[in-house]
Amino acid sequence: MCFGPENARIASVVRGPQAIIDYLAGLVRFSSRRYLGHSPAGGAMVVALLIMIAATAGSGMASLAAMEGRGPLSAVIEREPPPRALGQRRPPPLIRGIHQVLGNATLALVVLHVAGVVLASCAHRENLMAAMITGRKRSE
């Protein structure tokens, strides 16, 4: 996102909170401004998804280290002791719980992203899914 077409660069994707709110308010009324690159809401979703995916991956690596003593974080995260008796249940560790919450939040963001793409496609009368795949939008 630092290289490539101007509309794909981070500087053109990230906008302030007021721009995002104004865009979303217009979108639900089907009167929002059309953007050739990412809309303010689309840019915010890109940033949110990147952060959540990184956090989910990091917590997954931490969980693997804590549960099984393996992975890239195994040198810095202590492995949990095994259960005392065979079949004994123990509460899930904090790291695994955090990983599950982050994973579910990431999935929720994906669902919101898809819903936003569908709504914006309808509002702007264009196929944003095709634009995401080809990298091309009508320029009008």
UniProtKB/TrEMBL annotation:
Biological source species: Microvirga arabica
UniProt KW Ribosomal protein keyword: no
Membrane-spanning ranges: 41-66, 101-123
Membrane topology: Multi-pass membrane protein
PANTHER family given in the database record: BLL0597 PROTEIN, NI/FE-HYDROGENASE 1 B-TYPE CYTOCHROME SUBUNIT
Cytochrome b561 bacterial/Ni-hydrogenase domain segment(s): 17-135
Protein name: Cytochrome b/b6 domain-containing protein
Subcellular location: Cell membrane
Predominant cellular place of this UniProt entry's protein: membrane
Keywords, ordered alphabetically: Cell membrane, Membrane, Transmembrane, Transmembrane helix
